[in-house]
Amino acid sequence: MNVFIIGGTNFIGPATARKLLEAGHTVTLFHRSPGSDLDEYTHIHGDCGNVEDLKRALRKARPDVIIHMVAYFQSHIAALEKALDGHVMKTIIISSGDVYKGYAVLTELSAEPPVPVPFTEQSPLRDVLYPYRGKLDIDIAHDYDKIPVERAALQSPLLDPVILRLGMVYGANDPNRRFADPIQKMASGKKSIEIAKDMADFCASKCYVENVAHGIALAVAQGQAGEVYNLADKWVLAEREWLELLARKLNWSGEIITVDKEIPGMNTKQHFVLNTDKIRKSLGYEEITSIDHALSNTIEWELSTL
């Protein structure tokens, strides 16, 4: 198949493109960054919010499937619909577990009691929209919300959407650097690392970038239009357990100290765990990289950036 990836040059995008290429697909990357060209793929430059840019790119690429990596706003879906010019297209929408009501409880957008975990695809969604307004100092924060994005895609007469709700993705080139702080402290020989008592037992679904890319490639080939799938690794560990794993990988003999410390804006009684039974049963998803290799690769990348 000819796969058209919107915004495929950072983190999850290149990993997904590699998996698609390995599976025999043709890949076109549509993005704004002329300096980010990866030689293996066809590149078309443009803005995913610009209808004419998208039209021109789609006419040139003639895709069978679209993967929208950067559908941050409802307007991104509207632009894609207009650019399709009446043609129906299978479209993989990369969404997030932050759509669930439990995320609003976790981030104290909601004062309601914790929602039971794991979250299934039928679990309640957030009542509060635009979760990052006033909280993050990044360009997309004010209007970002995957809930209206998902709704627009699922209601579209032109998109045959497959929604993938991701857990917390980590690995090489992770812009959030989820493990950077403990890896750097352990590698520098720090004698101890502190973790807040409430955080030590907190569990969240993390997922290694190569495993996520594999799941996205499966959705391209087998995902059913109109379906929503949670995508995360099967290993759900408490934060202290992640630190202990990193310590073993780095041969760090220091002490992990639990301290009484408030965590502003976070209700750690609300765990963030996704149920991934559906994608495993429906699409045959399994992790292709073990947790051991995932952490080794992440550590190697983090140390290379020091």
Describe it.
There is one protein chain. Helix 1 (12-22) packs across helix 8 and helix 2 (51-61) packs across helix 3 (74-84). This protein starts with a strand and ends with a helix. It contains eleven helices and eleven strands. Strand 4, helix 3 (74-84) and strand 5 form a beta-alpha-beta unit. The chain is globular. The longest helix is centred in the C-terminal third of the chain and has 14 residues, at 209-222. The chain has 306 residues and is α/β, with parallel strands linked by helices. Strands 3-2-1-4-5-6-10 form a seven-stranded parallel sheet, with helices on both faces.
Summarize the structure.
The protein is 35% helix and 18% strand. With 306 residues, it is of the alpha/beta class.
